[in-house]
Design a protein that fits this description.
The protein is mainly β and 83 residues long. The chain has strands at residues 5-6, 17-21, 27-33, 42-45, 51-52, 57-62.
Length: 83
Amino acid sequence: MSDWQDISTAPKDGTKFLACSIRNGQHDFLRWVKGRDGYADHFESAIGYGGIPIAFVTHWQPLPAPPKPLDPPTPAKPNTPLQ
């Protein structure tokens, strides 16, 4: 995984990323959301709850590539006892 980067360099195109918050020292998966309907620009949890004020987030890093898919299991032959 990459090194932590200053939050000012985080993507602002809706890309999900791992972020660290100075508010509680915890990590979260976030994405940037452009403010609308009277709300300011903010980081939003990528897994569906609330928003985090920009001032609380200090660092970010890109998510790693997902793991490779597993090979499908070999089907058992009919009437073969399982071991």
